[in-house]
Write a structure and sequence with these properties.
- The protein is mainly α and about 180 residues long.
- The chain has two domains: about 15-50, no CATH class; about 55-170, AhpD-like.
- It contains ten helices and no strands.
- The protein has helices spanning about 15-20, 30-35, 35-50, 60-70, 75-85, 90-100, 110-125, 130-135, 140-165, 175-180.
- The longest helix has 24 residues, at about 140-165.
- The protein is globular and about 50 Å long.
- The termini are far apart.
Length: about 180
Amino acid sequence: MALVPFADIDALPPKARDYWDKLAAKLNIFRMLANADTMMEPALRFGGAILSKQDLGADLRELVILLVAELEGGEYEWNQHVPIGLRCGCAQAQIDALAARRLDDASFNAKEKALLAFAAEVIEKVKASEASLAEARKHFSPKEIVEIILTCGFYMTMARLTETTRTDIDPPAGSVVVDSLRR
């Protein structure tokens, strides 16, 4: 049970309520975020851009999100993103390796290993090492490097929101949210 009450959707200001009404899935994470009604739309637009407008491949994005969820203890995010990751091309062996924190697992290729090593340093140390960044730059453009960093930061924020407030975990929405962003 959530330690912070969910927003009263009927009491939201009109602009926030209109935005809420347009959401493809009314997930508890969004209900919690709606407590900060003036920040809900910008936050969800940012999250939507991560899920739909990056050059970084969807499978790689999902590996980053799942890594954040594992390292940060983001149970809500893990629950939502495992099915999305599978749909985007992540292998079950890769998800199992992330759950066991085996970032050098044979299920990952060199590009994925560079991604995970770099992202893990961003998540755990804030400032990734020059060696980790250099290895990532062998595989990713400057734009993708920044996208990786921003994905880490956004999902770290979402994990802190859901874990601190003890947001009730919804059944996975699967690709409903991601698919709605493509329209």
